[in-house]
Write a structure and sequence with these properties.
By secondary structure, this protein is an alpha+beta fold. The protein is built from seven helices and ten strands. Strands 1, 5, 6, 7, 8, 9 and 10 form a seven-stranded antiparallel β-sheet that branches. A three-stranded antiparallel β-sheet has the order 2-3-4, with no helix packed on it.
Length: 264
């Protein structure tokens, strides 16, 4: 479940793990301090990058960039937390107005290391997409986080990721597509075999594709927006899920991105 919040008010606390009043060595558990829900279990070597660290990092980015803290997203009851920093001005992707975000993600359950992402949120139709990259390669090992994180390092990763994504979008706009390629992508997304008949999911995807191709033209950019329209407005029903950063929407968007890049 996702929870979009303006402020991140709770913190992570570390506790020993015990059984029959005996403390289990070299292990610790992470809990929320507001409701004491379990976030993860790790070895003592695991460095906890707390919410206060994330907020401090965001404030430092605000000081040296055009991005300001907009909101936070909690996933899985806080096991993963995302900070969204919004560009102060409206940006444009392939001449289309977008709200642009810098996303920083942190997990407490060990499923991912710290990452930074580029997010575009199309104004005309609420299509959303996030492309992300790790800030640190290790999953919060002591020394690995504090040593590698500095503001310029993060901004360099972000700007590199943004440049790659926008270049891919530009090439998509110039790449014509066929009905066969549309069908191939749908098969990849829904796991459809060639001899399977149409189903409701495929029909919904095609409705989104037809709508966006009518607007953008029969090119890879139109097809990509058809998929992000489906994930943003059909799967997530137009809710402000901010970026489709995780779950089924992320999986589908990534399949589409990789497939369409391969056409160039």
């Amino acid at each position: 479940m996702k929870n979009v919040i303006k402020q991140l008010k709770w913190e992570v606390i570390e506790e020993n793990i015990s059984s029959n009043n005996i403390i289990i060595p070299n292990k610790k558990a992470l809990f929320r301090d507001d409701n004491h829900k379990l976030l993860g279990i790790h070895t003592n070597k695991y460095y906890v990058f707390k919410n206060k660290d994330l907020k401090k990092l965001c404030r430092e980015i605000e000081k040296v960039s055009s991005y300001v803290i907009n909101q936070f997203v909690e996933l899985n009851a806080g096991k993963k937390v995302l900070a969204f920093l919004k560009h102060k001005d409206i940006q444009h992707v392939n001449d289309i107005a977008v709200k642009e975000y810098l996303v920083i993600g942190n997990s407490f359950d060990g499923t991912s290391s710290l990452f930074v992402g580029y997010n575009s949120h199309m104004i005309r139709c609420e299509n959303q997409f996030t492309d992300s990259k790790r800030i640190v390669q290790s999953k919060h090992l002591k020394g690995g986080v504090t040593k590698e994180i500095d503001i310029q390092y993060i901004l360099n990763i972000f700007n590199s990721q943004k440049k790659q994504t926008l270049y891919a979008f530009s090439k998509m706009q110039k790449t014509s597509i066929s009905e066969r390629e549309i069908y191939q992508l749908i098969r990849l997304i829904i796991g459809k075999r060639e001899f399977d008949g149409p189903n409701k999911k495929e029909e919904k995807i095609m409705e989104s594709i037809d709508e966006e191709i009518t607007y953008f033209g029969k090119n890879a950019w139109g097809l990509f927006n058809g998929i992000t329209h489906y994930t943003s407005n059909i799967i997530n029903r137009g809710r402000h899920t901010f970026g489709n950063v995780s779950g089924e929407s992320q999986r589908i968007n990534k399949i589409a991105m990789n497939f369409l890049i391969s056409l160039n």
